[in-house]
Amino acid sequence: MNKGRTLRLGAAAVMVGALCFISGCCKKITGDSSEGETLPASGSATAAATGNTPKEDPGPSVTISAGTLVAGTPCQKTPRITNEELEGVNIQMGEFTIDAYPYPNDPSQSPRTGVTRDDADSLCKARGRRLCTELEWERACKGPGNTTYPYGESFQASKCSGSSNLLKPAGQYDACASAFGVKAVYGVVWEWTASEWGRGGPGGMATVRGGGHQNPAVRHRCANGQSRSPSETSADLGFRCCGGPFNPATVHLELDKRSPLVADPGVDPTLAARLMQALPSDMRTVTGFIPTIDRVWRWHPRDNEEMIVARYRAKRASGVGEFFHPVVFHLCGNSTVRPAKLRGPVEKMLNPTVGGNPQRISVQVETGSDKGEVQFTYHYGNVSVTQPTWVKQGNSLSVGTRLVVPGVKLRLPGKRAR
């Protein structure tokens, strides 16, 4: 028996194996040379009950070496789903094997769908195998380099293009392969795992991995999963089998639920200095002005996610004139990311507000007679900004008779500086 592989054989299976050996009917089953050998199965439960236990070809399998899985998505990476994924937790995994393709693990056939999780588990056991855990599935997908997608760090639409036509043979998705050699991991079917959905909620749900016909840049990430009822049967839900010692690690994610937008009572000087360092150099130093972070709000667009919304204020050293920038930051360990800011400053900035969608906040801004709304929209760790067209690129501003731009140039009342 090869290292790291286990084979569960009942007494009936052992007897049939001996007879097979005597009659010379046995054959060695191997997968692709890059994927290692596969193991003969113990036969179906139905055949075992009748005393006739034929050997069933489990198809090609891949050996996943022991190593470290960086489970979930580290906080500095995007996209991420904070209420569904671990935050880049290092988990030691033992060696195991996994089918190269979704069941029936035959590249010339389409995946088997329309089965419950118990059905899938029984079909795996009939081959002397088992359902994979979700973290084993993620390890097989990420490869030894723990990449975001099975094929690397950057999303490539053509790699796992998928199809709503599930009758396609699984081998047509060979380009969607991990560095370990596991194929057709995305764009084909969601796959049952042996794991419960440990992300809060009422419980009783099972985890599926793979799939991803919709929103592939997010759903094709190896960290992505979904919850399904274990009794569900659907045309987009299949499975693949694993072998070897069971890896016991599970996902248990506590959900931190907070109000969507909370104002800090004051600005901590250490936090203000940290945010200022993440700004462009021409905002940190503005001739004739004193830049500060004078207001801070905590934005929680999703559970387990926090963004910092800050009011940048540049006040003229002489006391005449000031301008503002609303800026969004994300703190991750010792690093500070600035996902969004305006093109340039505004004369007035009101406090941010949140409506019915916690993933969108609004800020009313003004410059002279121009008024408008700025919207910051959160999307899986990224933040986009929608802003009025009259907001101009730059780091300084001149409005009315009040000089608020570096230098000494004055202008007549009623005419806007250009």
- Beta-strand level of the residues, as a percent range? 25-35%
Radius of gyration: 29 Å
For this structure, the CATH topology of the largest domain is paralog of FGE (formylglycine-generating enzyme)
Number of structural domains: 2
Rounded to the nearest angstrom, the distance between the terminal CA atoms is 80 Å
Overall average residue pLDDT: 85
Which homologous superfamily in CATH is the superfamily of the largest domain?
paralog of FGE (formylglycine-generating enzyme)
* CATH architectural grouping of the largest domain: Alpha-Beta Complex
Q: Give the helix level as a range of percent.
A: 10-25%
How many β-strand stretches? 20
Total helical segments: 7
The geometry reads as elongated
Question: What does this 3D model show about the protein?
Answer:
With 418 residues, the chain is of the alpha+beta class. The protein has two domains: 196 residues, paralog of FGE (formylglycine-generating enzyme) (Alpha-Beta Complex), CATH 3.90.1580.10; 126 residues, no CATH class. It has seven helices and 20 strands. It has a five-stranded antiparallel beta sheet with strand order 11-12-13-14-15, with helices on one face. Strands 16, 17, 18, 19 and 20 form a five-stranded antiparallel beta sheet that branches. Strands 1-4-10-5 form a four-stranded antiparallel beta sheet, with helices on both faces. A hairpin with a 5-residue loop joins strand 17 and strand 18. The protein is elongated, with a radius of gyration of 29 Å. The N terminus and C terminus are likely disordered.
